[in-house]
């Protein structure tokens, strides 16, 4: 299991400076990097208190079919990022899309329904959750491209 980072994750801090509707969008491109089963891609930092109201993604590869699952993971001071069922209030992850295939636009497929409120404890060293993609495919592939947009609301 390897962890990769999108440009959006690297250069964009958790966007919570204003109240009201916010969005983050970006792209991850693996280029020649081989992505295999259970690899993690960190896409965006979503701030504590955000209420996620919509999520859309599409992805493709150069050749091999690659299924992905998406979720929110709290860092909690360690490198554990797994997109499994659960909630941010009681566990480390919150699943958005259980499995989505490439060449399709996947939106608002939130397990348990929308909205989801991002909640981290005061003990967490980071005041945000990671929006992550986890490879659910079994065949390694290159040229994975993920386009995504997440909409959320910040209320005082």
Tell me what you see in this structure.
This protein is mainly beta and 156 residues long. It has one domain (3-146). It has one helix and ten strands; from the N terminus they run βαβββββββββ. It has one helix spanning 7-11, and strands at residues 3-5, 20-29, 40-47, 51-60, 68-74, 93-100, 106-107, 116-117, 128-135, 145-154. The strands form two sheets. It has a five-stranded mixed sheet with strand order 1-3-9-5-6. Strands 2, 4, 7, 8 and 10 form a five-stranded antiparallel sheet that branches. It starts with a strand and ends with a strand.
Q: What fraction, in percent, of the residue positions are helical?
A: under 10%
Indicate the structural class: mainly beta
Strand proportion, as a percent range, falls in: 35-45%
Q: Spans with pLDDT under 50 lasting ≥5 residues? A: 77-93
Q: What's the oligomerization state?
A: single chain
Q: What's the Cα radius of gyration? A: 15 Å
Total count of helical runs of at least 4 residues: 1
- How far the N terminus sits from the C terminus, by CA atoms, comes to 38 Å
CA-based shape: elongated
How many strands appear in the DSSP assignment? 10
Keywords, please?
156 residues, mainly beta, five-stranded antiparallel sheet, 1 helix, 3% helix, 44% strand
Write a compact overview of the structure shown:
The chain has 156 residues and is mainly β.
Helix-strand blueprint:
Elements lengths: L2 E3 L1 H5 L8 E10 L10 E8 L3 E10 L7 E7 L18 E8 L5 E2 L8 E2 L10 E8 L9 E10 L2
Parallel strand pairs: 1-3
Antiparallel strand pairs: 2-10, 3-9, 4-7, 4-8, 4-10, 5-6, 5-9
